[in-house]
Amino acid sequence: MASDLPDRINGSYGKHFSEVLGRMLDCEVVTYARGGCSNFTIRLQMDEIIKHKPHYVIIGTTTPDRFEVPINDLTVSNPWDKWSNSQFNPKHGLYNVHYSSFENQSVNHTGFNEITPTVYSQNLTGIMGTDDQDVWITPNKILDKEMSRAVRGYFQYMYDMRLKLQQDTWIISEGIYKFLSMNIDFSLITPNIDENYFSHCKDNIIPINHILNPWTHYEMDTTSKNSFHVSNKASETLAELWYDKLKDKFM
Fold this sequence. Notes:
Number of helices: 6
Helix content: 25-40%
Largest sheet: 3 strands, parallel
Order of helices and strands: HHEEHEEEHHEEH
Number of strands: 7
Radius of gyration: 19 Å
Shape: globular
Strand content: 5-15%
């Protein structure tokens, strides 16, 4: 649930529940959230937030119908050439992911301007439709027809949602173990990942239908084109609920 830039047309700058909560707690809010990204990208966000030595982290996970697409053509004639024809750089972490054309506050982190991204991270279910329908990969870019057909074919015939759910759960759980080992206090919002893998930290879990889970308050605001999934009014309600949970940690 990414917060909007101040110049986003019809957006809701300053009205995301985390921004409202930050003002209530009188603390700085650092966000790496970006609309439409995958749990893999969220895992990379967790590594970046660690660098800020946070007092508290709210981690919002997402659905398993999201994946990464290389930005550049990685076509090879020999499958073994894939090892050398690869551009993702683990040392760059989150800055491998395209952010710049999204109207979210997280794009302001300097790394996104200094490091050339290597992958798009986007929603898969939104691409299904007729064969001649444009497939968007960023707010201002569509995939070419050949890649669009390839992605549709991959999703239709080779993509198992529960298999991806298992992979996403492992990816996020590794990040949680890292937080625990570093004594970083956090809450993990889990709308779709397998909560059984987090029984060792169940007090940190915000499950589906929990009053603190933003998805419990899902309500698109028809008067705003904000990039999060709740109305501005619901964001205020959420902030008040989270304030009750966290106020003692910030005294």
